[in-house]
């Protein structure tokens, strides 16, 4: 008779342990879902990075984008005038052209460029294909 009470006690303990594991897992899912940490945390956004390059030494734009800043601005104006590119909610024409030139000039991966410009890989791909 004690064997059956020990067995039911063991089953009860196992059920409690399983319930605790389920509750702990539910808490972890909740924390991960509602307490998200930002993935892109570079202090310079893509726009700030581009502005920083343009406002720096005149040769920096040539090193980073393989084009002098005055030529890049003229290109952006021409693309805007011909309605080939336009500012989007989050990405200016200057940043779109800079992203394109950065990828072509450095042969960097989408992931690297997304990290540099602080945009998602999807955003980088969309503007690169434009």
Structural key phrases:
mainly alpha, 2 domains, rod-shaped, kinase activity, CAI-1 autoinducer sensor kinase/phosphatase cqsS isoform, transferase, DUF8040
- Low-confidence segments, given as residue ranges, are none
Largest sheet: none
> Average pLDDT across residues?
85
**Strand content bin:** under 5%
Rg (C-alpha, Å): 27 Å
SSE series: HHHHHHH
Structural class: mainly alpha
Task: Categorize the overall geometry.
Answer: rod-shaped
The proportion of residues forming helix, as a percent range, comes to: over 70%
Counting structural domains, the number is 2
Question: What's the count of strands?
Answer: 0
Distance between the termini: 78 Å
Q: Can you count the helices?
A: 7
Structural summary, described in words:
GO terms for molecular function: kinase activity. InterPro entries: DUF8040 (IPR058353), HARBI1-like (IPR045249). It comes from Thalictrum thalictroides. This is CAI-1 autoinducer sensor kinase/phosphatase cqsS isoform. Residues 43-129 form the DUF8040 domain. The structure is a single chain. This protein is mainly alpha-helical and 130 residues long. The chain folds into 2 domains: 1-36; 46-129, no CATH class. It is 73% helix and 0% strand. The protein is built from 7 helices and no strands. It has helices at 2-34, 46-55, 58-65, 69-81, 93-106, 110-117, 121-129. Helix 6 (110-117) packs across helix 7 (121-129). The longest helix is centred in the N-terminal third of the chain and has 33 residues, at 2-34. It is rod-shaped, with a radius of gyration of 27 Å. The model has no long low-confidence stretch (mean pLDDT 85).
């Amino acid at each position: 008779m004690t064997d059956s009470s020990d067995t039911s006690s063991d089953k009860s303990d196992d059920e409690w342990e399983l319930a605790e594991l389920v509750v702990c897992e539910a808490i972890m899912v909740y924390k991960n879902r509602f307490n998200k940490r930002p993935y892109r945390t570079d202090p310079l956004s893509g726009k700030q990075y581009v502005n920083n390059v343009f406002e720096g030494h005149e040769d920096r734009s040539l090193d980073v984008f393989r084009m002098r800043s005055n030529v890049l601005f003229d290109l952006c104006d021409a693309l805007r005038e011909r309605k080939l590119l336009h500012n989007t909610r989050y990405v200016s024409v200057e940043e779109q052209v800079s992203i394109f030139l950065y990828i072509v000039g450095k042969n960097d991966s989408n992931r690297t460029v997304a990290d540099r410009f602080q945009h998602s890989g999807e955003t980088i791909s969309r503007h690169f294909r434009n």
